[in-house]
Amino acid sequence: MKKGWKLAFLGLLAINVVVVLVLLIGLLSPIKEEPLPKASPEKEAVEFHVQSNKEDLNRVIKAFIEKEKAKSFVDYNVYLRDQVELYGDIAVFSERIDYKLTFEPEALKNGNVVLRQKGIKVGKINLPVSYVLKTARDAYHFPDWVKIMPSDELIYISLDKMKLESDLRVRADRIDLKKDDIRFTFQLPIEQ
Predict the structure, then answer these.
(1) Is 89:96 a contact under the CB 8 Å cutoff?
(2) HSE of 118 in the Cβ direction (CA atoms, 13 Å)?
(3) What is the per-residue pLDDT across 132-182, written as a single tens digit (0 to 9) for each?
(4) What DSSP state is assigned to residue 192?
């Protein structure tokens, strides 16, 4: 009886040590550096300037994410408030862990958008931002025009590489969520 108890204890201890080692290796593994994407060259186009608000853009984002979530095993949602907020949960063993990331958006001169990471909450644990972004990059299916850059603590959105109907292209001109002032330029290429 005593031998069986000792073997069971040592087996359980070995399993715990292996789980802790696997988690540490995952947490401490280096993050692959990626350069910022380069903007695509502009073609001759007719421009349409659009001003929007958070409410309308939230509806568009929700519809787009619903399509993209079908390709992923992780549930997430994005909302525009005074900051960009990403909510979701991820399965860890048999439990679901909630998380919330907040970002400050910036429209770049080339029309693309950078989301700079401002806050993070995973369950009740504070994890390094770069680790959470790396995990999100590796776990989710994002479109090719969305680049997660963990070491820079940002998400780069290449609007110029986003595929829209009729070769329509979009560029961000201004994103001021606090003033609810969001402006885009849609470019419809013309052939000459």
Answers:
(1) yes
(2) 12
(3) 788 778 877 778 888 988 888 889 999 988 877 778 888 999 999 999 999
(4) -
CA distance 176 to 19: 44
- The number of beta carbons lying within 10 Å of the beta carbon of residue 159 is 21
Distance CA 156, CA 165 (A): 22
Give the CA dihedral 42, 46, 50, 56, nearest 10 degrees. Answer: -80
| CA 174 – CA 51 distance, rounded (Å) | 9
- In angstroms, the CA 109 to CA 84 distance is 20
The amino acid sitting at 131 is: Y
- Model-wide pTM > 0.85: no
Residue the block writes with tokens 């820079």: 152
Strand pairing of 95-107 and 154-157?
A: unpaired
Domains of the chain, residue spans: 54-161
